[in-house]
Design brief:
Structural class of chain B: mainly alpha
Distance between the termini of chain B: 53 Å
Strand order of the largest sheet of chain B: 1-4
Largest interface: A-B, 42 and 56 residues
CATH architecture of the largest domain in chain A: 3-Layer(aba) Sandwich
Oligomer: heterodimer
Number of domains of chain B: 1
Number of strands of chain A: 14
Order of helices and strands of chain B: HHHHEEEHHHHEHHH
Number of helices of chain B: 11
Helix content of chain B: over 70%
Number of domains of chain A: 2
Structural class of chain A: alpha/beta
Strand content of chain B: under 5%
Distance between the termini of chain A: 65 Å
Number of strands of chain B: 4
Number of helices of chain A: 14
Helix content of chain A: 40-55%
Chain lengths: 399, 293
């Protein structure tokens, strides 16, 4: 019996490790998956010759990431159609060269080389996810091909690479904007922060939130960590309840947030829950549990701004569905790149990146300018859940 | 102080679920000396049955509970018949490995059938908080969970102690061949044990899913492992031990989360397993039996 129990013990330990490992791996990869990187290469002398501007696009339109890649592809096509219908760039049409990179880094590099060598692209939109963007970015920089990723949120994609830009904000930026919103709009003085310790995404947002909140004179009453294997939050929530913070920041994906929010309601905690773009989709399963809470997102479909509504109308008319945040970012990335080519008056890479750095234009996912890394400085939409639907609460600037 | 009492209530809520699941481990171990690692997945299956009954067929909670218990009892008996019975006289290690294989099979089967995406458990009751004292409240869900668990444990205790079937179970657990010689139908008794254990697991799974709102194919692993620790802590093979162990693990876990750190909670729970095995290998209520050579 002793022997058997020892054996069982070993199995338990192995299983626990395995389980935790698995949980880490199988966690939704939204932040990565929602990252798209677009690289655009601008050809030279379009203005004089009327030669087409050749844009490359790499996005995963098959496999697990297909929904993300398809949204990006649709939006890029839509943006290009609109430009061409309006007379193109300085009289030249824009041509799109698209390949499905299946979300694979090796394939992405090969396809990028093909875009450069065979299709002679002037600029690249994409790739979509961070890992593939990280693979292509240094090569694009080396070859002098301007690239803009719509959705690569990993902070290492752009720094040190002058030809590499992105249209989405990065994780730490999002965390600090939510902290600002809590202080300015909700007048929060105290906050509790819950971190999923196994997730870089959650960790990055939590750290940035804490830093900004404390720098603004706020107090963090509780900093709690948990793992994907945790389901029971009653113990830490009871502790948090005693401190009664104004807000609780829970930067995680919606399934986990739903579990936390349900128990917040169960324990009768009055603090307001806040989160990041991982919450997108929570209204499907947990609408009543998160009623009145707030999260940051790239854009809101209820934003009355005409640029947003025009995009949604055009997208719905053509593709029969409401565009998600990735679509909005891809549309912005394309518009920004094409505006830069127009402003540069040339498809020469160096001139394009100069024009990109000078970008200052309204966009669907917020007014956009670039910092020295090529990361966008823009407003973040704060979304609230009202009567089970997502609504735009405020646009907050991170600056 | 109010917070401490609140944490104790939280702990009892989780603990009662662990105790229900631990009973399944301990009963099966008591009778066939098999650590049925697939038991955690029985609770997952129970939760899925409950989910479909509630969400798809909109039956009332009580009926969903009974349906889920009956179906899980059948699943438990089938697993025993197909996977464990052929190995009854094989070395114990073979049965243990088969149990692990069965656990993987069930998890992946359900992932294949219903997908890995967690599903939202419908709310079965209007959530209410009952204030017992200033700062101390208990939700009606927690009351139902605790009462249902304790009630089923008492029922089980009654079955084992007072009925003929219970007597047969105790006899088989004491000495299988002697029981057979006395005319006890050993195979039937083992089947019944699996059925009862699995039915309790189904209740545990359904309560777990209602308390934590989600159903997914891997949901049984962690509570299953903790319930196993609870069974060992209380003394595996001893029914009151499983209940005691379940409540103890629930309290230890909750208090660790509340007063030390969430990330340390699992380390404490499994650390206790190690300490118990070192100092009292038979568990708190376990009988110190000599290994027969």
């Amino acid at each position: 019996m002793k022997k058997l129990l020892s054996l069982a013990l070993v199995l338990v330990i192995v299983l626990t490790t395995f389980l935790t490992g698995c949980a880490g791996d199988s966690k939704p990869t939204t932040p990565d998956a929602t990252e798209t990187e677009t690289e655009t290469e601008t050809g030279t002398e379009t203005e004089a010759t009327g030669e087409a501007v050749r844009l490359g696009l790499l996005a995963p339109t098959s496999g697990a990431l297909a929904p993300y890649g398809q949204a990006v592809k649709n939006s890029v096509e839509l943006a290009i159609q609109e430009i061409n219908a309006a007379g193109g760039i300085n009289g030249a049409d824009v041509e799109l060269f698209f390949y499905d990179n299946e979300g694979d880094s090796t394939k992405t590099v090969n396809l990028f080389n093909k875009l450069v060598d065979v299709d002679k692209i002037h600029a690249l939109i994409g790739p979509v996810i961070s890992t593939t963007s990280l693979a292509v970015a240094p090569i694009a920089n080396e070859l002098g091909i301007p690239m803009i990723s719509p959705t690569a949120t990993n902070k290492d994609v752009t720094p040190g690479l002058e030809y590499v830009f992105r249209a989405c904000y990065i994780d730490p930026y999002q965390g600090s904007v939510v902290a600002k919103f809590a202080m300015d709009n909700l007048e929060a003085k105290t906050a509790a922060v819950f971190t999923n310790v196994g997730s870089d995404y959650s960790d990055g947002l939590a750290k940035a939130f804490t830093e900004t909140f404390e720098a603004g004179g706020g107090t963090i009453t509780d900093a709690e960590g948990y793992t994907d294997a945790d389901n029971d939050f009653s113990a830490i929530l009871t502790k948090v309840k005693a401190n009664a913070p104004d807000v609780i920041f829970v930067p995680d994906y919606f399934n986990m947030v739903g579990v936390v929010a349900s128990q917040v309601r169960e324990l009768g905690i009055e603090s307001v829950l806040l989160g990041g773009d991982g919450w997108d989709g929570i209204q499907n399963d947990f609408a009543s549990e998160v009623e009145g809470y707030f999260f940051a997102n790239h854009y809101s479909t209820t934003d009355p701004d005409p640029i947003v509504q025009d995009f949604i109308t055009a997208y719905e008319a053509q593709f029969g569905e409401t565009p998600n945040a990735l679509g909005a970012l891809a549309y912005d990335a394309t518009k920004v790149m094409l505006a830069a080519i127009t402003a540069a008056g040339s498809t020469d890479g160096e001139k394009i990146i100069e024009a990109l750095m000078a970008t200052d234009m309204p966009a669907v996912a917020g007014h956009i300018t670039f910092d020295e890394n090529g990361d966008p400085i823009k407003d973040i939409s704060i979304i609230t859940v009202k009567d089970g639907k997502l609504e735009l609460e405020a646009k907050v600037s991170g600056n | 102080m109010a917070q401490f009492i609140q944490q104790i209530i939280n702990g009892l809520n989780v603990g009662s679920i662990y105790a229900l699941i631990a009973l399944g481990y301990t009963m099966v171990y008591g009778i066939v000396k098999l650590i049925n690692f697939a038991h955690g997945d029985i609770l997952m299956i129970g939760a899925y049955f409950g989910f479909f009954a509630l969400a798809t067929f909109n039956v009332p909670f009580g009926l969903a509970l009974v349906v889920s218990m009956i179906l899980c009892a059948l699943v438990g008996m089938t697993i025993d018949r197909l996977a464990y019975k052929p190995l009854r006289n094989a070395p114990r290690i073979s049965a243990l490995i088969t149990a692990l294989g069965m656990s993987m099979l069930l998890q992946n089967l359900f992932r294949l059938l219903f997908g890995a995406q967690p599903r939202r458990m419908p709310a079965v009751i209007e959530l209410q908080r009952i204030e017992i004292a200033p700062g101390i409240a208990i939700s009606n869900l927690a009351i139902i969970t605790i009462l249902l668990s304790v009630g089923l444990m008492l029922l089980l205790e009654f079955i084992v102690k007072k009925t003929k079937t219970g007597k047969a179970m105790r006899a088989v657990s004491e000495d299988k061949s002697a029981a057979k010689l006395m005319g006890v139908n050993v195979d039937k008794t083992i089947s019944i044990t699996f059925a009862i254990g699995s039915a309790l697991g189904a209740v545990g799974g359904l309560l777990y899913a209602i308390n934590y709102y989600q159903v997914e194919p891997y949901m049984g692993m962690m509570p299953g492992l903790k319930a196993f620790v609870a069974a060992v802590l209380g003394g595996i093979g001893v029914i009151p031990g499983a209940m005691l162990g379940g409540f103890a693990i629930g309290l230890i876990e909750t208090l660790t989360k509340g007063y030390i750190s969430t990330t340390w909670a699992d380390a404490f729970v499994f650390g206790i397993l190690i300490i118990v095995l070192i100092f009292k290998p038979a568990g708190i209520l376990g009988k110190n039996t000599r290994e027969k050579v």
